[in-house]
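Collaborator request, handled under Task 6.
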Amino acid sequence: MSEADVIQRVRRIALDEAKKSAAGEPGTVQPIGSSGKGTNNVKYNTAYYGHEVSDPTGDGHAWCVVFIWWVMRHAGVPATVFPRVASVFKQKNANVRDFFKARHRFMSASSMPKVGDLVIFKKSHIGIVENVQGNTIFTVEGNASNRVRRHSYSRTNSGIDGYCHPAYDMVEEEEDMTPQQAAQLKAVADKVERIENVLFNGHTRHDIPIDNLFGDAREIRDALIVPGTTTAEDAFNLLFARVREIHKKVVEEQ
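Structure tokens returned to the collaborator:
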């Protein structure tokens, strides 16, 4: 897959989430707590932390970075290209800006951004650049007034700190698969998803036959050896994204 294809996939996923959020789809809009602030209980945080979060005062689990992490994983972008962190720049040694600076991929605010770049704001916020027209950039941002939103800014906006340029060319190209291979891979992913439901989504033993889970253990182990991931949760997300994309493509070509 080319760099341009990866960028368009990232863009498409981000825009789809913005549409869902605008329509009020559960999980894409954070509920308001007793303090009048958002509780940060969104599906992006649930995927990142492995469980639902709830901040009654809205003071923890900010998710603008987590949203981008979620988009990248669903686009098949590994942690070597976009890190598994939740901070824009405040958390020392575990933030987006330092990750890209260390790789010489952080550009000044005066630079010309491209579609797929990430814009960092001085107020510790971040968004995906989904379009550039002349002196105007268009973004998709998580945790923007309690939801995923599209915004536009002048390139000379004083609130912009700079831009990150992910190495999308490092995303490995998926090999062509036959319909049979795609079906087999999807079957393994379905088994992995049953495990994920037990581990991460609060399902009980009564929801899924436990004997089936033990019987699938070897295939689950093999399926979770995914390059570019460091945790089982990362492997789940990346595997599902790849399988769904490949299977959809193969079915469409039949």
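The cover message to the collaborator said: "The helical segments are 3-22, 43-49, 64-74, 96-102, 179-200, 210-215, 217-223, 232-253. Strands lie at 106-108, 118-121, 125-133, 136-144, 147-154, 160-164. Please let us know whether this matches your experimental observations."
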